[in-house]
Amino acid sequence: MRKIFLSISLTILMSASLQAGQAGHLYQNPYAGGPRSGAAVLSLVTSLAKRPELLDAAYLRRMLGAEDRSFAQNSAAIKHYSLYVEPGTSYDFAENTIMARTAGGGDAEPALHRQLTCHMSNSGLTHAQVRQMLGRPERRYFDNGAHPVEVYRLSPYASISVTEPANSFNVSTIEINYIGAALSKPTVADLALADQYRLDKAKNLLAAGVTNTAVALLAQHLEDKPNDFNGHLIYASILRRLGDVNGSLEHYRLALDLSRGAADFAAQDRAIKGLAQFGVVKTVGEPHNDNLGANSRLAGNQRFSAAQRVY
User: What is the arithmetic mean of pLDDT over 212-218?
Assistant: First the structure.
């Protein structure tokens, strides 16, 4: 099967899966570490191997950004990710049905196969370091290029394969393979944490000056969560800075309507202040302007009511 490349932040620090009773999500602090990707990728794939139901297109979209392209090959549906992650690291995700023998050695039966492959040009990771983290590998072999591969099993039906080209002292590929029964979908809590991760990553990218990627991730976030008023507020602020007045107004208005429905007064205030920057509404303490209409004013600590409909 063709190797599939996925990109992830070279600087993301991954945490282990949460304990039972909590969402088993690999939450991370994006752009908090150094320039090498190996430790972050290993933490990601380790967590996914422990909970292979997270090898899911909807979940990976939130963690890695929208796929660059999708295609079919050898009966496998393949998604390639690299546009919203760092140069030098990429991921591919493949899913198909194969014939596999049961653990008891019975006849081959149809089984679900999901594969996530990460290629790295500068992982900063060696086989020896992986063994320190994961223990003794289940087996070792040489691939078709005569590169040593070490295989670890962290759950009954999921394995991690780590390739370090001979004499390179640099792990180049880490791959998860799941072969087994159909998997459940990620939980609502899993997806919520992944949504928050994507939002945090967009904020960090914005702070780092990577504006176009931040905007793209926020747009994807709002496609998946159109009722997230905090996401609309962040997006509106970015669009304002980019000079897109109409786009900014639209998202401030959406944020105001949605936060009003959720009775989130802090978010309402942020939306009102955002609209006020365009002279659409008045905030407390500003001079009265009759051109805006009586309903567009705030008096004392009174919240907007009809004023929210004046934009």
Answer: 92
